[in-house]
## 1
Amino acid sequence: MFLFDRDSSHSRQSLTHKYYKLLDVPLNASLVDIKTKFKKKAFVYHPDKGGDPTKFALLREAYEVLSNPKKRSFYDQHGDAGLEHLQETEQPRRRATTSSIVMTLPLGEFYSGVEKKMPYSQTVICMNCAGKGSRSTISCTNCSGTGIAETAYRVGPMVFKNHGTCGVCSGSGESFPSGDRCSECLGQRVVRVQKELDVFVKPGTPTGHRLTFVDAADQEPGRDTGDLVVVLQEEPHSVFSRFGDDLVASVQVSLATALCGKATPLELLDGQYITIQPPPDYIIKPGTIGSIPGKGMPCYNREGRGMLYLKFEIDFPENLPPRSRQLAKLILPDDESTKTSLSEVVTWTVASSKELPQSQSQHQEEGVRFFSPGEDDIEGCRQQ
């Protein structure tokens, strides 16, 4: 048995109570006050929000002690030394599984940053029965109160035995009469509640980034609550595509703009407009790529912005009035005029992409045979 010296060096008045100071709560703080203070400080010091990982680890350690009635009572009476002995002698509790959910955001919110509420559903210990499932409990008859059940199965002449978590009591070692079930959880020990997470996304946060919320996963009786991980994903954008810190914008310009170098307005992801201007005397061709430094995504957790690339697409007119067509012929060079005067003139008609020949593999799947230039091919031509 571990005995504590009751002299002044270990008296309650001389204890430092560093955990209370870390969370900035009084010695008589309620569990609600402790949770509220921890959430506020965790929001500031969490590494995902640019906080100090060491400071966050200390805050979490303080919260795990002060939110546990047994640990808190021992800490209040005996300080750090008593708490260390308690942790050495007590059976460690298993931690519930860490779970994850996906949160999809528009690309503009990754660009500008956002703070928003995310509703989610969490399984919590039933407060009506304190996670017991009923008003009274008895030792589980299936596992004799151990929480571990034995199952046997036969393979041929051999009989194998397997030990695992009892399926009747879910490993708690306790059971209860069916007529004494809790009216709130119906004997399940847990209930489902709707909650909200305060999600803070910094400008330039990468897609796939993971935000960890301490003790926000589903609760399980007899286990410490696990963490909930929110994985950030971005929605596709109609104009912009993201590549790390860089952005690629698909810019449609008129034929007049492409030929004459007119300025074009472009709305950025934050709603601001810039005017993009080609180099002097430059003619924009289909597939032309332009670049603008410092107009891409904000760099995550550092200064600066990436590149903005412009991928131009030219919107050709459906037709031209006769006078405009004549002016275009006079203005635009015609390098093919000498060749057309010596060749047969064939007028083509407008077709769609669906009319194009399919790939060889597609034709082969449909039973169409392709010939390579050879005798069979030549003979086939001769017979036509």
Note: The chain has four domains: 8-89, 99-137+176-233, 240-331, 346-383.
## 2
Amino acid sequence: MNETASIAGTDIRDRVVISSKSHRARQIGLVALIGSFGVMILLVVYSRCAPDCYAASRPTLSLSLSLSLAVILVARGILLGRPITASHAIAAAVLAATGLTTHLLSFQLLGDGLVACAGLAATWPVPSRRDPAALARVWALIEETHDDPLAPFAMQSLKSYYFNADGSAAIAYCARLGLAVVSGDPIGQRTRFPQLANEFADMCRSRGWRIVVLGCGERCLGLWRDRATVGQSLRPIPIGRDVVIDVGRFTMAGRKYRNLRQAVQRTRNAGITTEVVDEQQLDEQLTDELAEVLYTSHRGAHVQRGFSMILDHALEGRYPGVRLIIARDSRGHVQGFQRYASSGGGTDVTLDVPWRRPGAPNGIDERLSVDMIEACKRSGGQRLSLAFGAFPELFDNENRSLTEGIYYVLIHLGRSLIKLESLYRYLRKFHAFGDRRYVLLSLSHIPIALVVLLSLEFMPRRRQFRVRAMPGATELTDPPEGTTDRNRGLLPPDRLRRNR
């Protein structure tokens, strides 16, 4: 087995000092947990039964309570399977020494709190480590993965990777606060997925991580449902459906495609033309044109968001297999573009994020999607995924139950981050809703899972480069009322301009 982002790496701070995999360590942890609880109970009883003596020895007893609490926290972490690394041990020692010193200097409350925090620091969940050098290996596996719309998003820079022994399959994930969030389905040879999932679950147990799967496809549900394998009971919660076009059979004929035909025809009447380019082959002039559209398309251009169903580093040429389809008006000005990523040797193409200039002609998004389908057909593509349709049944049902109504209101309250209903209205024009996607998690982990998942998907990350001023570039303005931002899946739109 091979984890590219191992915590036991070359950095001495990540070396494991105490491994919770040891049966003896778990036994000691259990004894310490029971003993510390007993000591705390005795101290509380003593304070109640002998208040005069307690008042005289209160500083000592309060410190004893803090030490007992610290031991309980350490024992709990060991029983949860969390290793104690060198950095954990150093942080705990510093906090404990500072706390004891502070207590002796008569700052008892602060000192006792620091002592208790030392126990928390000793077994704080270790994070996953990212390995940018693994991109070439990941891309090779993406090229072997067919009929999985989320496969290209394994390249996203927040993700770590777990490879099997021969490197023929991998899982993309990110570990935070003790949860290992698996992004989508494994990539690579499908026959290796069951053994890969078993080994990944073993690795997570050795780190003290609990597994959450975000965006699991129907075909891979069985990988995570076996409690004996995963070590916990994961419940699937449907979150939406893939929207996949069969490129060879796609047609706009028929009454049900009337809205789509009309949108496409409006752009043709407006003189819009399109072209497909490789992102890694962009020249500086075209990059500046696209960056200007991207920069003006949304007020949040200085940050990027997303994790499971999106790529980052747009227009930088960082990722292989990424193509852009660009819409120009009759004067040759770029009015919008869409970013697509491929997998399966080009048989599968997936929409990443669309951008359009405020005030661009209506129907540009539909025109770009239709023309990209035709481009895929010419290049031998078989499937094109337009997006992930979140909760389509909820938007399609006008007679909602009370629970569904509450969900609907909550979705509308989050419109500032992602306009799911606008995305649904766009996707239903193609009549291509397909297989479901799920979140799998233990119900006991829902509170912490919400914190972790929301932070991964919506926490803004400042871009690491500045924008070059371009002569004649449009000023950054807020989009006009009624402008629709359409994005893939559960993620807010990504915006950037190129740095020079």
Note: The mean pLDDT is 82.
